[in-house]
Specification:
The complex is a heterotrimer. By secondary structure, chain B is an all-alpha fold. Chain B is built from twelve helices and no strands. Chain B has one domain: MetI-like (MetI-like fold), CATH 1.10.3720. Chain C folds into three domains: about 280 residues, P-loop containing nucleotide triphosphate hydrolases (Rossmann fold), CATH 3.40.50.300; about 230 residues, Rossmann fold (3-Layer(aba) Sandwich); about 80 residues, no CATH class. Chain C contains 23 helices and 24 strands. In chain C, a hairpin with a 2-residue loop joins strand 16 and strand 17. The radius of gyration of chain C is 26 Å and the shape is globular. Classes of the chains: A mainly alpha, B mainly alpha, C alpha/beta. Chains B and C meet through helix 1, helix 8 and helix 9 of B and helix 2 and helix 3 of C.
Chain lengths: ~300, ~325, ~675
């Protein structure tokens, strides 16, 4: 293919993408969401460099002993102030709330992102396979989906918390993903089933194109928008699940922190010392809000006709 | 009739599988022996074993054998003993109504107000009402239940302070040692916040779906026919759009019920209600396998029942389904 | 024109904002509607005909910008509020929509929905309204009307629902009934019934009917007057006979001549209009038809032509309208290409032999545990052969099994019953590699060109896809792809464009190019033109004919459109409820049908010629197509057959109990106890 032609092809892919980008950026709440998320991500990445304190209480900079001396509240509690470098104040034991919140934010974002990637991938594979092959494969896989939907996932995760709390947070990611893919898989399946009957896929089948190639070359690319949207919204859902578990002590556990465990710690004395949970709570709401605004904005941009939203 | 019987058989199968999975996972993940370790003075090994065997939680017995014993009891209506050697059935009876009060009120209020707000939002699309509730529901859906509950608690304390007397109670079911009308009012005062914390999410959830579903119907051909007959836009929407648009909500009702049960666990523990959710958290923390399994059983039945109810509701509203 | 008008549209323009610019849906349209007349508004998709009817009844979406006037009894409807306008909707102006499946409320009874229409505008009790609803259903010839008022829409077939829609429309005896493609979604025999009822509705109420359609045949039979729309404007308007006989606008001329006719006996190349309709976002500066017009000169770009009076009671929008007649008679507009005789290279070699093919689908019951309670025969013991270089067409209405037949052939696996032999090989005995080898010589073109191409694949790659399967070298693929694009009349330089940049007709050409990539011996064509606009159909049909002459391919052509079949096929097999009822050479079958169903089917096809259409006697079949789940006993057609009904009781009993075998009658194979003879 001549170079000119290749460039031309590139131009045209761009034009579709440009259209989506243009629609997305015309949507004010989506832009707000994107801006907010970028800010939050920047905060999570750069935060540790902004403070001399560290989240880890066992480290040298983990505890501020001056707080015990200066505290007007007794213990290690000081209110947020820029003078002593505790932007979000200090906790009962003299830990820096800012450093801990940033650590919790990192953890929650990372877990949310990984869970979304895992669960959306599982959903894409299971859904596309079931929807394209149909028959017995479909029946078996859908029965599994139904069963997992009936299982009280929250309870099961809480029961299993003993396992992942001892063997690290990655297992938590895997388990969260394992209970989070079913609804997307169902949607992917129904889209695959209708795509399967579309003439271009039937044509490919009758041309003798092998199944695996049909799924990878025609089926998945034509569901890309759906997967991107659902993947985005799944990040928000995963963060909510993780923080919920951590709040009850079934998720990320001390010494490590997540936004959920920070809120749990802070609520005990929330009324008198609001800074203990205010920032982690606010950041949590803002993060999930930003993600759902982006997800809905993406949906509108990809598919301007549809009004039906999904859970955010 | 055959249809209902089959439906019921499938229902039963799923409950059995869910409960079995729940029991086996709980029995292998939780370690009741832990409860007796590290005590001072140390509890003798033999005593631990005999206590554990008595409540059917001894990890030295094969898990399938323990499961068999447990199922044998469940079939006869006996859910076994808690780790503290008390009857699970008793605990169950004490707690179930506490949770039911919350769940039933929460789900009904959530659905009713959600649908109502969704409908009004759709009719007044892009107007003040729609925008206000639209943004509010976005924020509520982004806030975990436990944060909503905490914030409500904050708010209540603030109001109480301003008023100078206690309008909202934030702990427990009711103040002890009162009766009659006073008890009724007092219970209500206790109930508002927990119910609200559980309902807000539901309202936000349903209102968004209902609004979208309503807008989809608004663009449908049969609504255009209704208007071509001479109905105004609003008349057409209420006479023809509403019922069709409410249909999908039945499915969401089933789906959201599972979320509601999880939410109840937070609400109960934050507002000091001794219901099933609070029990569950306590049971996991005390390695109480039998209690945990009983709650899993309870939840599975509830979720499936909600699904069943949704089917019945759909069939009642939609003649296309009724035929089959 | 001293008659009073029921409705007057004055310089109506409608625009919509859109992503890519302002859509000029209707441009400066003026139209008078007289009491009791049937006015046909004809146009292709995007011509603005539906927007015109929606603006008349005031149901345009909110985003529409409307200017001009629509006068009903001197009142400008465009200035009324929704509330005021709703008093006219249903009472003065009623509407029948295209898609009867979604136009009724699925959760309310039919009776309730008709009664509601009455209650909105009349002071009557609900019971009376319900009774009247039953009467209206009766008027619309719905059997057992007073029971059926209690039915829900999903219990009715498409044709029945369209009758309900007409009943709804006439409920309040309106002055005007707007019918937007009322029969497009229906089968031919049902379409004939519905059109008949529309005529009846107009007679019952004295209402004027505005029939909006793309089908010249439909207007030819029904309309008194016709208005032709192109790119949002009326380009020609006048009494229907005059317009058909002596069209004045080049677009109309091309359109009328491009339509294949079922009553034509000799084959001709169709006139095809070059290009495709312009995008309503980017219209040409002058006359919108100029870029496609064979009579184009520079003046055509100078200004948008107005609709001006022409030959008394007609009007035409063409800057050269006075010269056109001369150009036509001089043969300078749309010269019909003379077919170079039949240079088709054909032989008796049988490429495809199907014998006694059956295919059933399980009939399932139950929701949780589905179980098989019986079988539905989609195809029941059919046989046909396809010879080299010939075109065999399978025709029939929806559900007759024609598509199932195709898919059975394409699947290349042992059929449930019977034998399929492709290129001399029995498909039941194929190895995997043999099957793949056959795929190379057996290609398919689907109905919908918008669905047949992966929207995310540049068209060049799409065309190369089959070659990739058979590991043709990359460079060969590229040369062949360019060759193919040229062969189907597209610019090879556009190979890197995406399908969305092409019009329907162009896409179908791309699909054909893809199917030809491996030089197949058989091309299976599944309704290849029925999704295309009228003016581009002819081009694709001509291309198919040309390809067959050049390449000597055999076609297995499936269609519901008898006129198209008559135009392209050599042999035809007519299917009804899973069996072939008649087959033979096209000329023979179409000129003297032997099976009553064939005759009825031919008679139901509207002919785009008002003289012929209005004078010919039509056979309108009663009832709907039976469901294959519950097929009639004996001869599948006996319950709708007009021949049976006229015969003695013993003969009727024979039709009802005995399934007729296929036998040769006057050179055609017919499955009928009492075939029609010449």
């Amino acid at each position: 293919m001549s170079e000119k032609k290749l460039n031309q092809a590139k131009d045209e892919t761009l034009s579709r993408r440009q259209l989506i980008v243009r629609r997305f950026f015309r949507n004010k709440s989506a832009v707000f969401g994107l801006g907010t998320l970028l800010f939050i991500t920047a905060l999570a990445v750069l935060g540790p460099y902004l403070t001399p304190w560290t989240w880890d209480l066992s480290k040298e900079n983990g505890l501020d002993f001056n707080a015990f001396i200066d505290s007007p509240y007794g213990g290690g509690l000081t209110a947020p102030s820029f003078d002593d470098g505790h932007y979000f104040g200090t906790s009962q034991v003299g830990g820096d709330v800012f450093a801990q919140t940033i650590r919790g934010l990192q953890k929650s974002l990372l877990i949310g992102l990984l869970v979304a990637v895992f669960s959306t991938s599982i959903a894409a594979i299971v859904g596309a396979t079931a929807g394209y092959l149909m028959g017995r494969t479909d029946k078996g896989l859908m029965w599994l989906v139904d069963l997992l939907l009936v299982l009280p996932s929250f309870l099961i995760l809480a029961i299993l918390s003993r396992w992942y709390q001892s063997s690290g947070w990655l297992l938590l990611v895997v388990l969260l993903a394992a209970f989070n893919w079913m609804i997307t898989a169902r949607i992917v399946r129904s889209v695959s089933m209708s795509l399967r009957e579309r003439d271009f896929i039937r044509a490919a089948r009758y041309m003798g194109v092998p199944t695996r190639k049909i799924i990878s070359k025609h089926l998945i690319p034509n569901m890309a928008s759906l997967l991107i949207i659902d993947g985005t919204l799944n990040v928000g859902g995963a963060i909510l699940s993780e923080t919920g578990l951590s709040y009850l002590g079934f998720g990320v556990r001390a010494p490590d922190v997540s936004l959920g465990s920070l809120i749990a710690e802070g609520t005990a004395s929330a009324l008198t010392y609001p800074w203990l949970f205010m920032f982690s709570g606010g950041l949590l709401i803002l993060t999930v809000l930003a993600i759902s605004l982006i997800g809905d904005g993406l949906r509108d941009a990809f598919d301007p006709g549809s009004k039906s939203g999904r859970k955010s | 009739m055959g249809f209902i019987a089959k439906r019921f058989a499938n229902f039963l199968l799923l409950v059995i599988i869910a409960t079995t999975a729940g029991y086996l996972l709980a029995a292998s993940a939780l370690n009741p022996r832990e409860n007796f370790l590290g005590r001072n003075p140390p509890v003798p090994e033999n005593t631990i074993n005999s206590i554990l065997t008595q409540v059917n939680m001894n990890d030295q017995d094969p898990v399938l054998q323990r499961y068999g014993t447990w199922v044998g009891g469940v079939v006869k209506g006996d859910l076994g003993k808690t780790i503290f050697s008390e009857s699970v059935n008793e605990e169950f009876k004490n707690r179930i109504w506490v949770s039911f009060r919350l769940l039933i009120l929460g789900s009904i209020l959530g659905a009713v107000f959600g649908v109502l707000i969704g409908v009004i939002s759709a009719v007044r699309q892009y107007k003040f009402f729609d925008r206000t509730f639209g943004y509010s529901s976005y924020i509520i859906l982004s806030t975990p239940v436990f944060l909503i509950a905490i914030l409500l608690k904050f708010f209540a304390v603030f109001i109480n302070e301003k008023l100078g007397f206690t309008l909202f109670y934030t702990v427990g079911l009711n103040t002890p040692e009162i009766s009659g009308f006073e008890l009724f009012v007092n219970s209500l005062q206790h109930m508002i916040l927990p119910t609200l914390s559980l309902t807000l999410g539901g309202i936000a959830f349903y209102s968004r779906w209902q609004r979208n579903s309503m807008l989809d119907v608004l663009g449908s051909d049969h609504l255009r026919t209704a208007r071509a007959k001479g109905l105004t836009k609003r008349q057409a929407l209420f006479k023809h759009g509403l019922r069709v648009a409410v249909l999908p909500m039945a499915t969401f009702f089933a789906y959201s019920f599972g979320l509601l049960i999880a939410g109840a666990a937070f609400t109960e523990s934050i507002f000091g209600w001794y219901g099933m959710g609070e029990w569950f958290i306590r049971a996991v923390n005390t390695n109480d396998i039998n209690s945990v399994s009983a709650i899993v059983l309870f939840t599975a039945i509830l979720v499936l029942f909600a699904g069943f109810l949704a089917d019945v509701l759909t069939a009642a509203l939609d003649p296309r389904v009724r035929i089959r | 024109m001293k008659k009073t008008l029921v409705l007057q549209i004055k310089s109506l323009s409608v625009t919509f904002p859109s992503e890519s610019g302002t859509v000029n849906a209707v441009r400066n349209v003026s139209l008078d509607i007289f009491p009791g007349e049937v006015l046909g508004v004809v146009g292709e998709s995007g011509s603005g005909k539906s927007v015109l009817s929606l603006s008349t009844i005031g149901l345009l979406p909110n985003s529409a910008r409307v200017s001009g006037e629509i006068l009903l009894d001197g009142k400008n409807l465009l200035q009324l509020s929704d509330q005021e306008m709703s008093k006219h909707r249903g009472r003065d102006i009623a509407m029948v929509f295209q898609d009867p499946l979604s136009a009724l409320n699925p959760v309310q009874t039919i009776g309730h929905q008709i009664a509601e229409a009455l209650l909105i505008h009349q002071e009557i009790s609900y019971d009376d309204a319900l009774k009247r609803a039953g009467e209206l259903l009766d008027e619309m010839r719905i059997p057992r009307p007073f029971e059926r008022v209690k039915s829900y829409p999903h219990e009715f077939s498409g044709g029945m629902r369209q009758r309900v829609m007409i009943a709804l429309a006439i409920a309040n005896a309106p002055k005007i009934i707007l019918a937007d493609e009322p029969s497009t979604a229906l089968d031919v025999t049902v379409q004939a019934q519905v059109l008949e009822l529309l005529k009846r509705a107009s007679q019952l109420t004295g209402a004027a009917v505005v029939l909006v359609t793309h089908d010249m045949g439909v207007v030819a039979g029904l309309a008194d007057r016709i208005a032709i729309m192109y790119a949002g404007k009326i380009v020609e308007e006048g009494p229907i006979e005059k317009v058909f006989e002596n069209p004045a606008m080049p677009y109309t001329i091309g359109l009328i001549r491009s339509i294949p006719r079922v009553d034509e006996s000799e084959k001709r190349r169709l006139v095809s209009i070059a290009g495709s309709p312009p995008s309503p976002v980017a219209l040409p500066p002058g006359c919108a038809f100029a870029p496609r017009c064979p009579a184009y000169t520079e003046i055509c770009d100078s200004k948008v032509p107005d609709l001006e009076a022409f030959e008394g009671d007609r009007s035409v929008a063409c800057l050269r309208k006075d010269e056109i007649a001369g150009l036509v008679s001089a043969g300078r507009l749309y010269p019909t290409e003379v077919t170079k005789g039949h240079v088709k290279s054909t032989s008796d070699v049988k490429l495809l032999e199907v014998s006694n093919l059956s295919k059933s689908f399980p009939l399932l019951k139950g929701n949780v545990f589905r179980r098989r309670v019986g079988s539905v025969y989609a195809v029941d013991k059919i046989s046909f052969t396809l010879e080299q270089g010939k075109c065999l067409a399978i025709v029939g209405e929806s559900g007759c099994g024609k598509t199932t037949t195709l898919l059975e052939v394409m699947n290349l696996v042992a059929p449930e019953n019977g034998r399929i032999v492709v290129f001399g090989k029995n498909v039941s005995e194929l190895s995997k590699s043999e099957r793949l080898a056959i795929r190379k010589d057996l290609q398919i073109v689907f109905q919908d060109p918008f669905a047949s191409l992966d929207p995310r694949l540049p068209i060049g790659e799409a065309i190369m896809e089959p070659m990739e399967v058979f590991s043709v070298s990359k460079s060969e693929q590229l040369t062949r792809m360019q060759e193919l694009l040229e062969l189907v009349g597209l610019n090879p330089a556009h190979a890197n464009r995406f399908p969305s940049e092409f019009s329907g007709g162009q896409r179908q050409r791309i699909v054909i190019a893809r199917a030809l990539a491996l030089n197949p011996k058989i091309l299976i064509l599944d309704e290849p033109v029925s999704a295309l606009d009228v003016s581009v159909r002819a081009g694709v049909l001509n291309l198919l004919a040309e390809l067959q002459e050049k390449l000597g391919i055999s076609y297995l052509f499936v269609s519901h459109d008898l006129a198209v079949v008559q135009h392209v096929a050599d042999y035809v097999a007519v299917m009804y409820l899973g069996s072939i009822v008649e087959s033979g050479a096209v000329a023979q079958v179409f000129n003297s049908p032997h099976h009553p169903y064939t005759k009825a089917l031919l008679s139901a096809v509207p002919i785009p010629d008002p003289k012929v259409e209005k004078s010919r006697e039509r056979i309108i079949l009663e009832g709907e197509l039976p469901s294959p789940i519950n097929p009639p006993s004996g001869c599948r057609f006996h319950n709708r057959c007009f021949v049976t009904k006229a015969r003695s009781e013993t003969d009727q009993a024979k039709c009802a109990s005995e399934r007729p075998e296929l036998r040769i009658v006057e050179g055609a194979e017919v499955s009928c106890h009492f075939p029609l003879l010449k």
